[in-house]
Amino acid sequence: MMKNKADEEDYWNSSKFKAFTFDDEDDEFSRLKESKRAVNSIRPLVDEDDDEEEVEKVSWSGEPVGSISWSVNETAASNQRTDREPAFPKINTDTTSISKSHSGYSLSALFKGETHRSLSDSSVRLYAPELRKPKSEYKVTTRLTAVSLEKFRSLQDKLLLLDYAVSAHDGNVITAVLIYLKRTLSKEVLFRELTDRQTALRHFIHYLTESKDQRLLLELLRALGRTEDMALLQYKEHLGIADENKRRDFLKSCLSLPFSPEDSVHVEDHYTLLERQIIIEVIPRKQEIFQKFPRKASILNMPLITTLYYCCFYHYTESEGTYSSPLNIRQTFKLSEKQFFVTALAARAKLKAWPDVDALFTSRNWLGFTRKKSPLSFQRVVDVLHKNSAPTQVLQDYVALVDDAELRITLAQKHKCHDIVINTYRDLKDRQQLLGYRAKMARGSAEERKINELLNNSQIRWKN
Amino acid sequence: MAHSARTDCPELPDFFLLKRLARDQLIYLLEQLPGKKDLFIEADLMSPLDRIANVSTLKQHEVDKLYKVEYKPIVSTSDQLCFLIRPRIQTVKWICDVANADKATGRFRRYKIIFTPQKFYACDAVLEEQGIIGDVTTDEWSFYLLPLDDDIISLELPEFFRDNFLAGDQRWVRTAGSALHLLHSLYGPFSKVYGIGRCSKMAYESWREQVEEGEQKARQAEIGKVFLIDRDVDFVTPLCSQVVYEGLVDDIFKIKCACVEFGPDVTSSDKSIKVMLNSQDRVFNEIRNEHFSNVFGFLSQKARNLQTSYDKRRGMDIKQMKTFVSEELKGLKQEHRLLSLHIGACESIMKKKTKQDFQELLKTEHSLLEGFEIRESISFIEEHINRQVSMIESLRLLCLLSITENGLLPKDYRSLKAQYLQSYGVDHLLTFANLRQLGLLVEQQPGETLTVMESKVGKLVNDRTGGKLSDAFSSLAKKSNFRALSRKLNLVPKSDEEYDLRVPRDMAYIFSGAYVPLSCKLIEQVLERDGWTGLEEVTRLLNGHEFAVTGSSGADSKAKNDAQRIILVMFLGGCTFSEISALRFLGRERGCKFIVVTTAITNSSRLIEALLDNLV
User: Region Disordered: what ranges (chain A) (predicted)?
Assistant: First the structure.
């Protein structure tokens, strides 16, 4: 449920909140005190904070201070106690954001920060006396908590309690108050109040997420008008569905969810892909290739590119009309040339289908000459081929196509494409390098002979 | 390290006390449940527990069998079950299931849950809902701080990062405050506290309140200054590839509670070895902060020295040999073992890194940091995605691109996101939503800045709500302003200058001289200026929330106290080994020592993994 603007105005101008001022010592102030007391009481209950450890045997099981004092007493007996004084100043966490803003804040907002400070500075210890009892007993804890929170019955008191909890920056306490509010307020009222309390709202969302209360969380997001979050949260449920047909049907039902236009395309692709994978999965695997390279895993729920790889591997030659044809997948999902190219290259290289690899690069220009073209740098191509253990004869064709001479030499040396190294040095007219390279070649090898021929060639004008 | 370090660095306080405290508390808690009992331990508490107690300690206190929490029905036959867990709803629900299953079969047992470091109210609520309050007793083990090394203390709370920065849940703020309080009571009083970030501010407040509530003792301070910093102040640094040895080892082999498991490829045998990596390991201690390019040379020099020492035994007479064996051999053997391990690790690192085109990857990162050749970087990342190279790595590069560029152009964002989903699965839609919420991977908003947005919203609704809304905005997807910060703080040295990595001249050495980590630079600047004066523009770019406060008790004892040169830096949301190395460097340069307290040790993969949402 979304409140309209009028509602909002109305709400904020309602007498209850107008009356809520901090300057005069009216009962609003004591209410706040009470909130603080309640909030503080939760903390010691939950954290077992206790500063009476000397008196109580069990206390050092709780707060570190107790245990430390025990330990410090033991290790450094000479330590003395000093008078208590506030050792460090308070930095107000609220005022910073307020003072940073130049305009647009009401006096009451500023005032709020002010009051908080003065309240917290007061040295009055607001702990209820009954809270100083030992807290290790579980039953006691809950009873006290219940009592201390049950006192807050009016909406106004509850909200004060919540706001106070938020201003104390203890997430545990904020959540504690929220759990109480969830139990004692109707959803509509709670959601409405949380709309304007972002910190509390985030705690509530996190609490619902952690306790897996999906239903209430969806209701909350709907009420807040956060439709995209809602859609994503619902979409996420598909991860828990193991059966592929049920998952596909669930994804289909997701198509109508209020995703952003961009995301709805992705979700539709997801549905189409799974539908497609279910079909591909049951194609009889009789061909030789499945025997030679048995599948290691099912194709279900794999990413699109993995699916494409699979199809390039097992169904490469199929006509574009079939669902498992790589070209059909490319069409359906509007994959870029590069995406298709990289995947097909890797798959065909893996199979050592070098003619297929070669064909991927071949394009004809308008004169009918074929030349190698690649959407991927040839350096990367060599890399992919090398990783799939392509032989040197195959590699050298592609190393030769690397434009940059230096890079070409590095790659050729790495992959032992001697001819390319030698030819490149020749083109660079670099006699020194050639001499050096000859030293690395085996005695009497073809490479050595080739280098010797070049060095003896008087036509070449060496640069060194 | 071969550079002109100052020699007058003060001694670090001894943190062994923290371990003893934690152990004694645990023993006390175990004794609260007298008699034989089986102990169930949450998986991620095993390693931390290992560091402070061993099985025989537990056995001495009548722990019979040990189990890992696995969210399955249990097989224990003991009449008393003790659960040592983090305060998580899921775990508490499981314990309720266990107890209720026993009830259903008429079995009577005693159950005790020990929450560490503290219990949350939400856990109590589950116990109440499931009707087992009264059957179960609960306790808290305030095991806040685990010293990992002489100068590293961890809260071992990796979930701090996601809970606080993504979910906006402040449940750990008080924990951080308590951890600080513990350090303050043992090693304080602190005289000065600096900080930046919303969470830092809240943690400071929580700590300050606890100081006021508790007792204070006059003692000689061992730690003088404190710096608190939120992880979201600097996301760039943890997203970069680490090239300092310790960081690199963490990136590749994953260091867990200062312990690493080297596999067969490192040990060159058929088994894996678990090794503690800390200052006790003399070989490691000398190379941990070194740029990787120096490590090989160092290790081979060391190996040669070792050989010489071994060779000494030639030509010894019996008596000399006897002294050699009893005095030197053991040390040499150990050094030998460590050396061969680290050499093995180096080789394995080299192999892995050359395989994945590490050089090119680094080049891309440096371009992003410098803001040069962005189109080339984008197409590198695109190819990375297309080739389905590591899912985490691709995301890391995308995030780095987004933060350094203040968001991606809408056209790039859409295209890269689509290709990412095609390569790694559409499930990652949720991951992208998380990254956007955190501001790590966003589209550039044409023309509209946050402040315009804020004032618009502020006018729409009533003034009172304006404050809360702007609060919400500032914590979500905020602008990173990296480029401006980089210029202002001179984070990226000019690339045409030679940088000798063997003789580092500044903290940039941890990133091959290409980038001074923002987090550490801020610490350096603030310490130098004793506050934020002169850094107004920087804090504005960082969205504020900076503070610097002086304590009343610390101000007078300030005079020439060694403690003033011991600086505790607390990272809320995790810090990397590279940052620790940078701070160690800074300490040596400035004649001070840093103690790093962190909610967890992080690195780029842990950071990204914490934000993934493609699994149930």
Answer: 74-95
